[in-house]
Amino acid sequence: MEKTGIPGKAVKRPVLRKAMTHPYLVLAFRIYIGSLFVYASMYKINYASEFAETIASYQLVPYWAVNLLALVMPWMELICGLFLVIGFRTKSAAATIAGLLALFSAAVAISLFRDLPIGCGCFHALGEQMSWKTLLRDLVWLGMAVHVYLFDSALQVEKRFALAIRDI
Amino acid sequence: MLRSALIILFMLLLGSAAYSCGQGPDLQGRYEAVNPQHQGNVVVLALRSAGKGSWTIEGEEVPIRWERRNQEIWLHHKGGAVIAGKLVEAGRIDVELPGLGRFLFLRKQ
Amino acid sequence: MQSNASQLKSAPDPEQKTRLELDRKVFFLETLLETSRELNGLIQPRRIMDAFLLMTMGSLGAADGLVLLFNTRSRHAHLVHRGIPPAEAEHIEQNIWSIYELYYTEERPSGPSTSMPKLITHDSLPEYSPLPGRMEAMIIWDIDQEYSGLVGLGKKISGEPFEEDDYSLLLNLGNVLVSALAHALFTKNIEHLNADLYKKNVGLKESLGQAERARRDLQRKVHHLKSLYELTAELSPLIDSDQLLESFLLTVMGTFGVSRGFALVCERTARRVRMVSRGPARQPHMSADEADRLLYRCLDSAENRALEPMTVTRLNDPELLFEQIMPGAAVQTAIMLVIDRSHMSLVGLGPTLSGLPLSGEDEELLRAQAAGFMVFLKNARSFEAVQCLNQELSEANQELRQTIADLTEARHTIKVLEKAKATLKSIVQREADRIGRVSLLDFSLILLAALVLGFSFNLANPNGIPILPKSMLIAPVAGIDAADARRLQEAGLAVIVDARPPEIYSQEHIADAVNVPATLFEIVFKMKLARLLTPQTTVVVYGRNISKRYDELVAYQLLARDHEQVRILTEGMDSWKRQGFPVRP
């Protein structure tokens, strides 16, 4: 990982990089994103019809897929969130969540462009009106998820397992 | 490692349990409001335990689920609508139905 | 009578001559008769010779005479003499055989005996003769090849020379002597022969007796051998100790003809006793300790206490010893067989048919049989030992085979396990490697889990939502076009319902359409729509977008409330607006 540039900066970069990629930072992101999604999925699972309404309000998904999506997506959020929190299959979970977030971001962006007066629907049906803040928030989360995907290493359940079986 | 993960998970579960259960029993009860459309009618809002309740109009009882959110009470309808009622003061719920008017529910018991 | 001869010559008278001659002849004959009578009863040659000499000398009147008898075969010579002085006699005796040689070597006929005496007168005597020169007459004779003799007479007492008659008398006397001698000799011979015969007879009888004994011995021996052979034949096919014992006992009892008996074999180290009995015997079984005690007692009364292996010893006082086995003084003979120090046998036989105890030879037979039995028993034992070993070997073999099979199986199992381990290891390592990676499988699994969980939760949930819209599953609601709807509305026969959410309704809606949001249907219906409707009123519902068909939802709910006249405005508000029909606001 060599970087060209001013020698002075070259010294700083590794430090910055190290800070950026510190396992604890990644861990914090991971746990945050994970618990966020677990929390977010709770309402949607409980009030599936309202979530279906929310999905419908974006006017992106065809009518026959709305309910399906309303049923499956919250559970995906829950599972991936749990995985992230626990530290199991973090890479796959992070990738899934990043994908979902990308999806949400795109939907929000489209809706914003369409000027649809709808709520985000991320947490509950009567959430605040969608705005660019929502999009930004989603993008930040996406960034975190990607970060987790790339750099997660600490507190993984599987790490212990890996250590154990390395002996074999 | 595993233990810390489990602790986190446990806390989450607790949180979600609290979330779903912590509705506050003080809102339970029977509320009545006058139908603004039809002055003669009375709409009864019954708030029972475990977030269950019913909206009775002209004899027809519509089951709803309710939850408290700070100063609001959210009523969830099976069709997919959620109505936010304001908790103005104790024993008074202010519900605004778009196109139907404002329902002032007063606690009867 | 001597004078008669001379008288004869001098007698002129022929009658007298004849009478004298007759007298002489009578004298001759009487002499001969007497002589022969005298000699008749004698059988000893010496006595014959003696008597003869006497008679002859007396009858012839010789002063001295001798008789010699030679036994050429036994080189024996007898000399009888009278009137010869002892010194001469001794001399003659010493040279007796030279005399013989003198007179006999010349004329020895080879043919049968010539017993006729021959006269040798003084004249014809050889010149150098050991005989006293005074021998006037001599006769020699042979009897067979064996005997020869001579008679010699000296001068007459009267001094007269021997006359013809004397010579013929002498000859005749000689004849008589010869015949008497011959007779005597023959008699002696016969006696000898008799004696010989008798001795031989006796000898023969003895031999016969011996032969008889030998024959009996042989017969007995044959009998013994036969018994032994029978025993061997009986025992040889058997390999079981018990069978051997029984067979032996029966054979022995058969051989000696006893009706009762027992036999036991005690294997002291193995603490085992085999016992067989025939006839009334009380105990068919005996414990090892009892047997031991019995053996000790027997040892006490055994003939030979040396206990050398493969020996048979006779036991004394068998009745006492085996009182308990065969009570009533029944055991007559008993033997103890010592196969080796740890393997002994006792055999007891009851009384024989004759009641007599066994003879020495019978005992020998018994011993021989017992010895044979011991060999067989030893063999049987060896065989049993071999069988045991064989059994053990085969068991060990079996165990070995089993072990080998187990080992093979174990080896196989180990191989399988190792393979499994290798597989598992590779799987696990693959999984371990997978930890750090992301894979499509994870996504699929997450998706699948979400699907499963979502659907099952939905199914179980009373507040569940339909997975697929109703319109996809059941018949769609009938449509109505805008013009008809407008017509009906104007006629007051229809109510147009806007099923969309209030926000959207407030933006734009068909004029005089009632807003019954699909999500709040149950609440709003009663409040707003119910009183507008009659069973005949047609309800026209509109309002849908790409993601939601509000009109369908409301239509179905209306139908569920038994409202038959429900229509959906085809192409919704767009067709209304196209038709130019009014919209609000």
Describe the structure.
The complex is a heterotrimer of chains A (168), B (109) and C (585). Chain A has 7 helices and no strands. Chain A has 168 residues and is an all-alpha fold. Chain A is globular. Residues 1-5 of chain A have low confidence and may be disordered. Chain B is α+β, with helices and mostly antiparallel strands and 109 residues long. Chain B is built from 1 helix and 8 strands; from the N terminus they run H-E-E-E-E-E-E-E-E. An 8-stranded antiparallel beta barrel of chain B has the order 1-2-3-4-5-6-7-8. Chain B is elongated. Chain C has 4 domains: 2-191, 2-Layer Sandwich (Beta-Lactamase); 233-375, 2-Layer Sandwich (Beta-Lactamase), CATH 3.30.450.40; 388-467, no CATH class; 472-584, Oxidized Rhodanese, domain 1 (3-Layer(aba) Sandwich). Chain C contains 17 helices and 17 strands. Chain C has helices at 2-10, 14-40, 45-60, 86-94, 96-104, 164-235, 241-256, 288-300, 318-321, 360-435, 440-460, 470-473, 482-491, 502-507, 521-529, 550-560, 572-579, and strands at 65-71, 76-82, 118-121, 137-143, 147-153, 261-267, 272-278, 311-314, 333-340, 343-349, 479-480, 494-498, 509-510, 514-515, 538-542, 566-569, 583-584. The longest helix of chain C is centred in the C-terminal third of the chain and has 76 residues, at 360-435. The chains are: A mainly alpha (168), B alpha+beta (109), C alpha+beta (585). The interface between B and C is medium-sized, with 19 and 20 residues.
